[in-house]
Design a protein that fits this description.
By secondary structure, the protein is mostly beta strands. The protein is about 5% helix and about 40% strand. The strands form four sheets. It has an eight-stranded mixed sheet with strand order 8-7-6-15-10-11-12-14. It has a three-stranded antiparallel sheet with strand order 3-4-5, with no helix packed on it. A two-stranded antiparallel ribbon has the order 1-2. A hairpin with a 5-residue loop joins strand 3 and strand 4. It starts with a strand and ends with a strand.
Length: about 200
């Protein structure tokens, strides 16, 4: 994004959301492009994008001149029932690993999302491990949490939890796996979470 962007329900109408160049965590704001509205000269005028706001999967139109676009080659798929995360690169499976997922009371939300931020905690031995890959999803039950209960893929200081349904909705991986995953999942990487 160049400086700021407004999201519209329909091109050219009244905006319903505004985004700065940086989000609340001081990470650049990213959207996932779902479609393009082109002018008579075939140049992009608007992009239909997935937004990093509630409700999960929210979409809107942003002016093409307000954003910069790029491509990603990676994709993450999370199967909640088997508690497995699989990384794909250029359409090929790179690796699969066991994860911890949300508990019955605080489930991991299903849907199609994307990596919208990448964070390094101050304490790599803390509950998020060495890093957190923020996903554009929010908990549907933890409404009182900071920033609305965002979901992330992160490491853990509780390795015993891997393979269990015990988190508050986030997806936990072993710290060594998280380091590898963090290297190859740039912002914009699609994340599909399913049962």
């Amino acid at each position: 994004m160049r400086s700021s962007a407004k999201a519209y329900r329909h091109p050219g109408r009244k905006p319903f959301a505004r985004f700065g160049r940086l989000n609340v965590n001081r990470f650049p704001t990213y959207f996932r492009v779902l479609g393009t509205v082109r002018g008579s000269d075939c140049a992009p005028r608007w992009f239909l994008v997935q937004l990093p706001i509630k409700p999960n999967g929210a979409t809107g139109y942003v002016r093409a001149k307000a954003v910069e676009t790029g491509r990603v080659r990676s994709r993450v798929a999370v199967d909640l029932s088997s508690k497995r995360l699989t990384l794909f690169r250029a359409g090929r499976r790179v690796f699969s690993t066991t994860v911890a997922v949300g508990s019955r009371a605080t489930p991991t939300p299903t849907g199609r999302y994307y990596v919208n931020q990448r964070l390094i905690p101050q304490d790599p031995r803390g509950p998020f491990g060495p890093a957190a890959i923020g996903v554009s999803a929010y908990s549907t039950v933890l409404t009182g949490w900071t920033q609305g209960g965002p979901i992330a893929i992160h490491g853990t200081n509780e390795p015993w939890s891997i393979g269990q349904a015990v988190s508050n909705g986030c997806i936990r991986v072993r710290n060594r796996v998280l380091r590898r995953l963090f290297e190859v999942t740039p912002a914009g990487t699609p994340v599909v979470i399913h049962e």
